[in-house]
Amino acid sequence: MQPCKQGFAAWGRALGLAALIGWASAAHTQEKVAYNMAWLPQGSSVGVIVAQELGYFKEAGLDVSIQRGYGGNRTANELDQGQYEFGYVDPISLVLNRSNGGKIRMVGALNTRWPAGICFDTRRHKPKSPADMKGLTLGGGSASPVHNVVPAWLELNGQPRDSIRLLRMDPAVVDASLIEGRIDLAECWRASNRAVTQKQADAAGVPLGWIEYGDFGLDAYGSGFAASEDTIRKRPDMVRKFLKASYRGYEYAFANPERAADLMVKMFPVTDRGVALAQIRDMADLLVDPQARDKGLGYLRDDRMRSTVQFVDKAFGLNGKVKPQDTYTNDLLK
């Protein structure tokens, strides 16, 4: 009987070794991918976070690392330099990168319309249009595109480019400065700092108002997934897998926002769950384009990309240096 037991034991060890080798081989074949969130963890990147936590990337054969970023311009430049495969990039940063010789493109929409606006304390001001903000002070981050966007937006609405006084500030103090009454207006971004501002306003008993640029002529995309042309050319299958898994993550998050907020907190424990939940609900609205619903999530419309690039061109005086068709592709969504 002893030899039989030894035989079974040896067979068991062989099976275990084979399973271990198989697991190691599978793990080895996972393709490494790095994603830059452009800022701290927030609802704008919830689809990527959910895809990671629920194993969608792993199913697709991808080993994805999700990293914080330090603003749109830096993210676009780091993407162009090959430090990341994907980034959450706004069209302004993308166009400016290309105007300086960079080669990155939008490969999937996330904010299908410009997600920014101007917040204010309704006890002090109640603007209904750009004209009503004449002479007021608007605070924005020192490197924020608001300092170029607002003058061009004012001009678009028949107002003098300098009718709103722009103040460059440390991004960390913009929200608090509005709540404390030190500035009249503040830049607010849906699925981002607007939820933070709203939380601070609620705690201070400040009624918060909001005007969206998109309600007054700004027909433009906000941030989306971007990749370098080198990555697109050399690793198209990887790009398709990443996009498919990520949009699957967004769909899950929108159907299960409470669970998605929990997954964000699990991955990034410093995340404020309430703020994250509000940001996720913002994204559920921003990601779906009613005019391209039949195309599926992520589709970038020719007309809106053209309008986006034209606005950026005017805001930054680029004189047609970047062509709309060079800034995006829908080919990897197929």
From TrEMBL:
Show which residues constitute the signal peptide: 1-29
| Any single Pfam family the record assigns to this protein | NMT1
Catalytic reaction(s) noted: N(6)-(pyridoxal phosphate)-L-lysyl-[4-amino-5-hydroxymethyl-2-methylpyrimidine phosphate synthase] + L-histidyl-[4-amino-5-hydroxymethyl-2-methylpyrimidine phosphate synthase] + 2 Fe(3+) + 4 H2O = L-lysyl-[4-amino-5-hydroxymethyl-2-methylpyrimidine phosphate synthase] + (2S)-2-amino-5-hydroxy-4-oxopentanoyl-[4-amino-5-hydroxymethyl-2-methylpyrimidine phosphate synthase] + 4-amino-2-methyl-5-(phosphooxymethyl)pyrimidine + 3-oxopropanoate + 2 Fe(2+) + 2 H(+)
Pathway, according to UniProt? Cofactor biosynthesis; thiamine diphosphate biosynthesis
Q: Does the keyword rRNA-binding apply?
A: no
Q: Name one GO biological process term.
A: thiamine biosynthetic process
Q: Boundaries of each SsuA/THI5-like domain copy?
A: 45-260
One GO molecular function term of this record is: metal ion binding
Q: Per its UniProt record, what InterPro entries does this chain match?
A: NMT1/THI5 (IPR027939), SsuA/THI5 (IPR015168)
Sorted UniProt keywords: Iron, Metal-binding, Pyridoxal phosphate, Signal, Thiamine biosynthesis, Transferase
Question: Which purpose does this protein serve, as stated in its record?
Answer: Responsible for the formation of the pyrimidine heterocycle in the thiamine biosynthesis pathway. Catalyzes the formation of hydroxymethylpyrimidine phosphate (HMP-P) from histidine and pyridoxal phosphate (PLP). The protein uses PLP and the active site histidine to form HMP-P, generating an inactive enzyme. The enzyme can only undergo a single turnover, which suggests it is a suicide enzyme.
PANTHER family assigned: 4-AMINO-5-HYDROXYMETHYL-2-METHYLPYRIMIDINE PHOSPHATE SYNTHASE THI11-RELATED (PTHR31528)
The family classification in the record reads: Belongs to the NMT1/THI5 family.
Q: Share what the entry says about its subunit structure, partners included.
A: Homodimer.
Q: What is this protein called?
A: Thiamine pyrimidine synthase
**Originating organism:** Pigmentiphaga kullae
Upper lineage ranks? Bacteria, Pseudomonadati, Pseudomonadota, Betaproteobacteria, Burkholderiales
